[in-house]
Amino acid sequence: DEKGNRLGGTVIRFSPELKTKGQISEEIGRVMAKVGRYCAERKKPLIMEDLDTTLAKHGMKYGCKKKNRHASLFAYRKMT
Fold this sequence. Notes:
Oligomer: single chain
Largest sheet: none
Strand content: under 5%
C-alpha cells in the first residue's frame, strides 16, 4: 500500500540442485519471466533488496553440507 505494507504475494519455487550451470540459467530465466508477468498483471513494480552474500558464504566452512550447497547455488546476480 502507500505506506509500504505488503498486500499479498505468491511463491514461485525452483530447485537448482543436480542441474548444470546452463540448466540453472534457463530455469532462472523461466522463473523471472513468471515474476515479470505476475508484476505486470497486478500493475505493481518489482522491488529487490541489494543483498551481499559474500560474508554469509565466508563463514560456512564447517556448516551443514546441504545448507552450504544451497547458499552457493543462490543466483542473486543472475536474477537481477
